[in-house]
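Q: Can I see a sequence and its folded structure?
A: Here is a first one.
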Amino acid sequence: MRGTQYKPYLEHFRIAAGLAEGRYRGASFNDGDFYKWMEAVCLLQAVDKDHVWDQRLNEIIRVIGKAQRSDGYLHTPVLIANRNGDDSVQPFGDRFNFEMYNMGHLMTAACVHHQVTGKDSLLRIAQRAADFLDDAYRNPTPEQAGHAICPSHYMGLLDLYRTTGEARYLDLAKRLVKMRDLTVDGGDDNQDRMPFTQQTEAVGHAVRATYLYAGIADLYAEIGDDALWSSLEKIWQNVVHQKMYITGGCGALHDGASPDGSKNQREITRVHQAFGRNYQLPNTTAHNETCANIGNVLWNWRMFLANGESKHIDVLELALYNSILLGVDLDGTNFFYTNPLRRSDTAPVALRWAGGRKPFVTSFCCPPNLARTIAGVGLYAYGKSDDTVWVNLYGSNTLDTHLTNSGHVRIEQATDYPWDGHIQITIAECQNQPVCLKLRIPGWATKTTLKIDGVPTKTTIKSESYVSLKRVWSPGTVIELDFAMPARLIESHPLVEETRNHVAVKRGPIVYCLESVDLPDDTSLADLRVPEDVELIPRFEPELLDGVTVLEGELSLKQSGQWRNQLYREFNPTPSSPVAVQLIPYFVWANRGKSEMSVWLPLD
């Protein structure tokens, strides 16, 4: 939270409310960034109640309420312009004003605030904003359809529906999703070149895309429209098997054209921060915006809620531990906007947001999104139904919950996961009723053992699934899971041209990288190769990078020499020599000063 700098955006609401003077400064989506920050504060309040922050939230909500128009409209760039005498700026006058996006994050933050505090002060503001949208989009037009950019409002409206029980918010969500089909001259950057139910692959701006898919998965869970689910499933398969990075990152391109190479050139449009072609996964120039990686989590969580399949939690966990944690440094004050898989001092192009983490970037959407995601990670740890608890994520924690058919249940986890594959789950309290525990067996877990009170079970265990244990439990029962966690060399599909004859290293859910800080002097990262029979030994380093497991081993050093002004040259075999190295988790690189880094390394 220290690095999320909320005060400049609070000032916008003060100006819009007439409590201060000034003009709007910043991106048009900064209201939404502020709501995300508020959501993060609320989620932290749920874990550790702080009276000072509670009072501060009360004061902020009063300012927001005073800024809101009587008809429910709330978007400070427009409100400030009007207050300063510029009546030419009107609601929905510019589709890139992100009004719907901002209001969607308001709705979600308001629901979280209500759930945590029991108060309805922010909820009433969000309801008035939703009611404004309900009136404004009563009979949607093709022109209005273009205002669905980065649609957080689908998720926001579903949050409102579930929190209040008022069906009009579900109806509005259905109407706004259907409205997308009215779009004229749409494009792939906003995923509106064709109706959603005709889409089969992920295209365009990766944040807008993953927010769209998350919102529609949310809607599907309520209305069960098979056409929506069919497209979601096809797009999910496309992302996971052809367009997602090994880190769970999404969005290969800084800039591009889509559909690239289409015979119908009239349908080609510019895209940015976007998914590329199938298997187009560059490393140095990878965009992988932090918000897109968070969108991948939001989407997969909602897919899991709809079908209960562990593959979605596998992707969620992959993104959380790798491409999301990477977005902030260990001090919590500097942030990555983009998350490449390789950094070189001799990068072939100048890129936006290149270099190390920064305390502030003008597009400040990622830091508060990170804050709310990390603060709310416990929301993904478990799922439940009438008599079942899904154990999704492993980590030392306590679950205290009530099941409709099985009553009160208290579960305690003790583990050093993800550094260690041993997990102990204790049934601390339960009723004399059957409870089904579903324990996730990750897709990477090829060797797993399971014991109950020290006795191995005969239950069939399969990776990428849940193992079900249903019985009347006795308090004090101990379940032990052991996942083997060898360091593994991973290769990519041969159509990923940039990483042919390269390998990456994973151990458990953690992706590793080689950082130049850990190399001997005068050793270039580009000259290192991975022997096919390399042995990588895990070792926990409590004093390194706040405590991480490193992988130690020997790589091969082959000096490549100077290229000078050459594009091609004759190949000359060179001898190799062993070099002792350590690999670190990808998410902690760039915490020790300027450095080079690579996830993918060539084979020797």
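Q: Show me another, different protein.
A: A second, unrelated one:
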Amino acid sequence: MEITKIMLGELASNCYVQPVGNGKCVVVDIGGDAPVLFRRLGMLGLEPAAILLTHGHYDHIAGVEQVREKYDIPVYVHTLDAHMLTDGHANLGDWISTQPFQPVQAWETVEDGDTLQFGDSTFTVLHTPGHTSGSVCWRSDDVLYTGDTLFRMSRGRTDFPDGDDAKMLESFRKLKALEGEYRVLPGHNEESTLSFEKAHNPTMRGL
């Protein structure tokens, strides 16, 4: 599966474009720079069918409303992070950005275990709180979009107002218990694999 990574926004957060057949795609996290995404989608010959969010922080949602409005597509976010889509204080935008925040006008909420079907791809919600209360990983075939939960050789911060270190450790236990091999596509930095993280990630090894 050829997935395109685009670094967007002031913090160069990873946005992923996954083709789902018939010229459609699903976009995971949009941290800003919507025009950059529009151009890349045009180059790829793809049109989004949906936007999936790993959590509600500004650097992962700043470009969502422009894309949602242009294509009139659904946005999916965990129930516990939905309030961040309209609140620049809760999503940290007031603190980390000098740009005005464009609130998301419509979305649908998901819970742990929910599955969504787009074209030939299924996406399953794994609720992985810790970085935020509503952080999730999205699983599609052999791919895990881990947002700011699991990074290569590291983990997401828990020192934000909505962070919880104990919940982060439970989320790592949940990911460690997954069987099989997965590509790990995080919200920042380079990709990894689940087997590599089980063997080398300090937090995962310590569980």
